[in-house]
């Protein structure tokens, strides 16, 4: 974990109280904390840092309805291709992350990529913001993203067919920022940051993957600056009872508080109409990006991810 994160992190288990963490037994090597613990004196929880990866999840808050497929080697490889296929010069690669990045303005201050996976969008944000934090619940993804960040390279084992695979070396362009970015293991439903920390926020293809979608939005809203913030939200709205109970979906049902289409409900929520998200966001643009995930050389998932770019200007809390 980069040392710049030390002053930003708070105890996720104590939320909504904002309790600072005390650093214990840190081993710091070149601005990177490779081991140690962050301890909350209020609740006595301890958040370990192991091999540079910081685990900021408060166990009670995380998704509990399904075991995570995101820790498997096959899914890690699929996501490395999805995020960095263009750097492997693959003609089938997607340019989804560049399209999403083009929707955001350069803005000083801190940016967060919630559900960052293996980190491509965090690197894109690094070219627009002063500091970027990618947060994901998957240890395998965060480890891979940090490995890329620290070494600029990684080996990707791409499935070809059946048991056949081929190895490729993925190298990040030298000009991509690295010092101003970091990745931690954390939960989108209990983000370990103070209210109003971030000027730029991204939630890409995440809301249909969390157990409490509305909680994800209220958390995102809590950590956004109350004035001068921008938000990029994108999702295919693939609601599933394997992830969240039907009554918690924000769309895709005929009855209930959030019946109808996810995008319509999301706009209503962001605009503050039912008082969940305050101060209100202004919808700047909306549209869609085709996003691609690779399973093997002849099998891809093509996903229409519907985005909203929203912003907010200086506000009045009431
Ligand atoms: C469909 S992937 C999208 C990843 C990335 N945002 C993108 O668009 O490529 C969903 C990601 O969310 C992460 N995730 C799922 N539940 C989460 C949670 N409660 N908190 C943080 N990350 C979560 C998964 O580990 C996975 O990396």
**For this structure, what is the CATH homologous superfamily of the largest domain?**
Vaccinia Virus protein VP39
Low-confidence stretches: 60-66
**Which percent range describes the beta-strand content?**
25-35%
Based on the coordinates given, report the CATH architecture of the largest domain: 3-Layer(aba) Sandwich
Ions and ligands = S-adenosylmethionine
Please outline the major beta sheet: 7 strands, mixed
CATH third-tier fold name of the largest domain = Rossmann fold
Q: How many DSSP E strands?
A: 13
What is the topology, as strand order, of the major beta sheet?
Answer: 9-6-5-10-11-13-12
Order of helices and strands: EEEEHHEHEHEEEEHEHEE
Overall spatial form: globular
The structural class is alpha/beta
Total helical elements: 6
The level 1 CATH classification of the largest domain is Alpha Beta
Radius of gyration: 19 Å
Determine the mean pLDDT: 94
Total count of domains:
2
Could you give the distance between the termini? 37 Å
Percentage of residues in helical conformation: 10-25%
List its salient traits.
alpha/beta; 6 helices; 13 strands; 7-stranded mixed β-sheet; 18% helix; Rossmann fold; 2 domains; binds S-adenosylmethionine
Question: In words, what does this structure look like?
Answer:
The protein is of the alpha/beta class and 318 residues long. It folds into two domains: 52 residues, no CATH class; 256 residues, Vaccinia Virus protein VP39 (Rossmann fold). It is 18% helix and 31% strand. The protein contains six helices and 13 strands. The strands form three sheets. It has a seven-stranded mixed sheet, sandwiched between helices. Helix 5 links the parallel strand 10 and strand 11. The chain is globular. The protein starts with 21 loop residues before the first strand and ends in a 6-residue tail after the last strand. About 2% of the residues have low confidence. The site of S-adenosylmethionine (SAM) has 18 residues, from strand 6.
